[in-house]
Amino acid sequence: DIQMTQSPSSLSASVGDRVTITCRASQGISNSLAWYQQKPGKVPKLLIYAASTLQSGVPSRFSGSGSGTDFTLTISSLQPEDVATYYCQKYNSAPWTFGQGTKVEIK
Amino acid sequence: EVQLLESGGGLVQPGGSLRLSCAASGFTLTNYAMSWVRQAPGKGLECVSAISGGGSTTYYADSVKGRFTISRDSSKNTLYLQMNSLRAEDTAVYYCAKRQTQLWSSFDDWGQGTLVTVSS
Q: Burial of B16 by CB count in 10 Å (0-12 exposed, 13-18 middle, 19+ buried)?
């Protein structure tokens, strides 16, 4: 099975900072990658699919890039409402594995 | 507006059974692949089962294979997860999640989740 590894596992940044989270697949997955945001006590929310396509309604400060095995989620200017755990997920084949999550906090 | 409303969670003893339901509205269940995704307390996300839009393809994670069964009732627009031989490690919030299209797509809508606790 393909493994998804996110880094870092947690980060603390200031409001307005640029934040980057990486996700690495153990084998190539083309661009079949999604990013989800889960705020504390809330339901996961789709942010990005096909590695770089922003889901409708998601603020433009979020962006995604990558293909093959290496992917990134970038928040261009961190806002207080972005405090959450972020998960990547591959969906090219079963099992549809999630990364272990990256917890983002405000410094 | 898409809505997914799970029910059926609760406290059950090891070895017991539960059936989770997910009532869908705002779309036709059989036009989309659907999945059950669980999250153990303080842990990450795991897709445990899925069914294709046409219903001909089902998937189970190794951790639940042979114990869980996914199904749906098109007349009620409702998805189910029958869980048998439950174990302590099945304790989690179970989310019903809609795929964007078919099985090889992301989860674009999620229910609020239902908590399953397996304990004596």
A: middle
Q: What is the mean pLDDT of residues A1-16?
A: 97
Residues on chain B touching A43 (C-beta within 8 angstroms): 95, 110-113
Other C-beta atoms closer than 10 Å to the C-beta of A42 total 12
- Backbone dihedral region for residue A57 (phi beyond 0: left; psi -120 to 50: alpha; all else: beta): left
Question: How many A/B residue pairs have CB atoms within 8 Å?
Answer: 52
**CA-to-CA distance for A19 and A11, rounded, in angstroms?**
9
Task: Decide if B104 and A91 are in contact by the 8 Å CB cutoff.
Answer: yes
Please check the confidence at residue B103 and state whether its pLDDT lies above 90. Answer: no
d(CA A17, nearest CA chain B) in Å? 26
Task: Give the closest of B44, B104, B112 to A98, CB-based.
Answer: B44
Identify whether A95 is preceded by a cis peptide bond (ω within 30 of 0).
Answer: yes
**Chain-chain contact of A43 with B104 (C-beta, under 8 angstroms):** no
- Measured distance CA(A5)–CA(A98) in Å, rounded: 9
pLDDT digits (tens, 9 = 90+) for B32-73: 999 999 999 999 999 999 999 999 999 999 999 999 999 999
